[in-house]
Amino acid sequence: MTRNKLSVVAILFAAILAATLPAMAQTVEVVGAGSSAMWQGAAYAAWHDLAGATAGTHYTVKGSCTSGNCAQLKDQRSSSIALEGGNLWVVWNSAQTEVWAYLSVDSVVGNRCYRATPRCLLQIDSETENTTGTVVPASQTNLISSGLWGADATALPTAVYTALNGAPVTAAFTDIRPEDAKFAQCRTSSALNTTNYSGLGYGSSCTQLVATAPIKSNFSSSVANPVAFNLSGVDPFNGDPIPASTTIPVGAAPIIFIANQTDATGLGSASVTNVTVNSSGTGTAQGLWENKAACNATTLGGGSAPVTVLLREPMSGTMNTTEFTNFRLVGSGLGSASQENDINPTLGSGAPGASNNPLNLTCASGGGSRQRVIGTGEMVKEVGKIADSIGYVFFSYGNVASIAPTTAVPAGIGKYLTLNGVDPIQATYTNGELPTCTAPCPVAAGKSFPNLRNGTYRAWSLLRVTTNATGTNFTHVSALVTALQNDVNSTVPDFVPYKTTNGSDPGFSTELYRSHYLQSGVSPNNGLSGQTEAGGDVGGCIEKVAAAPGILSCHQ
Questions:
Q1: In-domain check, residue 118
Q2: Residue 449 sits in a domain of what CATH number?
Q3: In Å, what is the CA distance from 163 to each residue of 67, 157, 167, 364?
Q4: Is residue 271 included in any domain, yes or no?
Q5: Which one of 110, 389, 425, 445 counts the least CB within 10 Å of its CB?
């Protein structure tokens, strides 16, 4: 055979080999879904610590593309289950062989999509392959719009898109325990019980697979969809066995009450600084959210002005943390002790002078109203738009950035209030100015959220991640959690890390815990001394861990 013929054969063989060998495989490290509270911090941790921090190896997107949501979750168990859109970040290494992603929805959806058997799928619109990513306005001084993160990629690489589109959820990021998330779904889906509000009326029973009525926003087309899931045993839709899982604590974050302060004679008055709650049910927050006091700034010590009271959907971890640390207290006798008091979703918007779903009910007195928002973003957006409005959020610098002080509005559109006289963010309260952060804004070890750490601030919950009990998913998720905890104090201190491995914080695990209780059929276990944590804990008693054990406060 001549040299030329040998060359042709070699070229042909190389072409055949290239056509038959697979492309370099992509490993999907984590597909997370759930709470917005950890969304930004987890993005930075994945990119900086795990993916190599190469410029432009990340992408963020939200909202609508031509065919629908740019990113969404599909529950495979039934075609009657609505798609769940949200904000998505994607991170990859420089070789595009390792990929991380996280869709921000809410805690209950995250828990449901992880527990569903088969698990929900992440779906991404193909437009992302030729559209520059952007989810966070540059004007907001938070983590992934900062110089720490840098500019997004001009498009989602095809290899990364192919690896992620249709990938199953591997972790639920949640600000309440899975037992409490299941309880929220069950309570929301159950028939309305106006005696004790153990059922909220969006469905007919706890076991209803898809609730009759989605929970609607009064401000947008957003809805929350109560859909059944189980924590263990078998899936309620198809009887398939649910794999064993574990829940990893990430850190503690406070709920803060926020108000629009643009009306200096109403909620903007310097005398409006505090909301109160108590076991007798006569606190000012209870009066506003439960429709038992005037929806007026006078209720909080301001001048006469109707107040718009904003409620989150009862499927959210934010709502449930607020509900069970401030409103639904045993000492109040339960009964109508709920933000959902007087709300009957079966009336829809057809009741004379009332709108129950979407919620827009005129208060019994004071001239104001109670109105529904869906999601943290919508809560903050509407507080920023509506004079004399009041709401609540899990604190993070990014969550409140749009109503915090800016060059154009030095005082900020919004302010935060103390709860029973205790500041949720700083050691002492001044004028309620929301703190801002141009990343990095580091804090010394053990110094963030002092009143949360010492147990005097009552409205908080542990942020957590649920994933497989063993195996690859557990390994990848654990690595992301460790990076997130180690980074938080040096970048944007949005929460108190549960523990660290680099000495950046003593860790919340050494300070406090909430007592656990029987919830969703799971017996309580506080998880101390190496035991497995179990049962509900949203609103549980605040107790010290070791040095001086004992109950600091009990809100049930």
A1: no
A2: 3.40.190.10
A3: 20, 10, 7, 54
A4: yes
A5: 445
Q: Are strands 360-362 and 369-372 parallel, antiparallel or unpaired?
A: antiparallel
The region that residue 367 occupies, defined by phi over 0 for left and psi between -120 and 50 for alpha, beta otherwise, is left
For residue 257, what are the CA distances in angstroms to 419, 524, 543? 8, 30, 23
CA dist 259 and 307 (Å) reads 10
245-260 and 496-497 strand pairing? antiparallel
CA distance 24 to 460: 45
496 in a structural domain? no
Residue 22 has a pLDDT of 41
CA end-to-end span of the chain? 89
- The answer to whether residues 193 and 344 touch, using CB atoms and an 8 Å cutoff, is no
How many domains is the chain partitioned into structurally? 1
pTM of the model as a whole: 0.92
Cβ atoms of 307 and 390 closer than 8 Å: yes
**Tokens 């591997």, residue located:** 170
Q: What is residue 452's DSSP assignment?
A: H
Positive or negative, the Cα torsion across 378, 380, 384, 387? positive
Please state, in angstroms and rounded to a whole number, the distance separating the CA atoms of residues 360 and 364: 13
Range of the domain at 384: 253-453
Q: Are the C-beta atoms of residues 265 and 143 closer than 8 Å to each other?
A: no
Residue 451 corresponds to which tokens in the numbers above? 């009143």
Percent of the chain whose predicted confidence (pLDDT) is above 70:
89
Q: In angstroms, rounded to a whole number, what is the distance separating the alpha carbons of residues 331 and 493?
A: 35
Is residue 521 left, alpha or beta, with left meaning phi > 0 and alpha meaning psi from -120 to 50? Answer: left
What SS3 state is found at 104? strand
Specify whether the CB–CB gap between 13 and 153 falls below 8 A.
no
Res 331 pLDDT > 90: no
Look at residue 64 and tell me if it is in a domain. no
pLDDT in tens, 212-249: 999 999 999 999 999 999 999 999 999 999 999 999 99
Residue 116 tokens, joined: 């569903």
Query: Pseudo-torsion of CA 14, 15, 17, 21, nearest 10°?
Result: 130
Which segments of 263-374 are extended strands (E)?
274-275, 308-311, 360-362, 369-372
Half-sphere exposure of 475 (CA within 13 A, CB side): 4
How many angstroms separate the CA atoms of 19 and 23, rounded? 9
Q: Which structure tokens are listed for 185? A: 């779904």
Give the residues across from 69 on adjacent strands: 64
DSSP strand pairing (223-224 vs 369-372):
unpaired
